[in-house]
Each structure stands twice: as structure tokens, then as C-alpha cells.
User: Fold this.
Amino acid sequence: MSTSQPDASRPSEARAGDDRATPDDLLHARTGTDVSPEDLVLATGRDVTPQNLEWARRKLAEEGPSALDKLLP
Assistant:
């Protein structure tokens, strides 16, 4: 006795017309507020240490708030 399962290699009818890439501006999570060094450190998954905060300060000085956009989906 076999069970009927949809073919995983084919998109469902509901998704068939929605099979395209998500626009870049919808992927980023930044809310337009200021980005702190702590935000940048936490976005990388690192611990908040003096060394990591200094790295984040330098990165923010070089790249501005977009540094966070590059790390987050």
C-alpha cells in the first residue's frame, strides 16, 4: 500500500507564479534607526567584548549603517 505524496521537485500550483527571487530591499531587516557597534557585533553572532566592539566601531566608521545590511538577510 502506497501513499500519495506531491512531487517535491515541482512547485505547487499556489507557488507556480511566485517562483522568483525576493527583491533586495525586502530582505534587509534594518529599521532605519541608528546602528550601534553592539548591534553589529550581535549580528555576527560574536560575544560583546572590547575587541569585538572596537572591530564594529571601525567597520561602522568605514561602511556606515550599511555594514549591518551586509550581515543580515
Q: What stands out?
A: The first helix runs from residue 24 to 27. The mean pLDDT is 76. The helical segments are 24-27, 37-43, 50-63, 66-71. The CA atoms of residues 8 and 15 lie 12 Å apart.
